[in-house]
Amino acid sequence: MQTLIQVVCSKGRSLREAIAGDARLDHHQLQVVQQKRPGRRHGWAKLKSTLPDRRGAINLEWDANTSVLISRVVTRGKGRPHLIVGDFIDYLLARHGRRVQAINIIPRP
Fold this sequence. Notes:
The protein has 109 residues and is α+β, with helices and mostly antiparallel strands. Helix content is 19%, strand content 39%.
C-alpha cells in the first residue's frame, strides 16, 4: 500500500535537507536509511522507523519551486501505514511546525 503525504511549506531551505540532517530525528523513532544516491534524482531521501511494529518506508522529495515536500509511505503485506504516518506527522509538527502551512494525506490501495 502507498500513502501520499504532501506538505505545503513557507519559502525557505529544503525541508528534505532539514529532515535528513536533523540530529533529533531519532527522538521521534525515525532514521535516514538512504539519501542522494548517485544516479537517483537530486533531493531524494528514505526514512524508516526504529520501532519494530512500524513497517514500511517514507520516501521524501523536495520541490523547491512550489515549496512542497512530497512523501510516499510504502508498506508491504499486512503493514498498516497509520503508525509510521502518525510518527512522521508528529515529527513534522513538532520540529518544523512553523514552516508547515498544510498537510494533505492521500491513501492509495
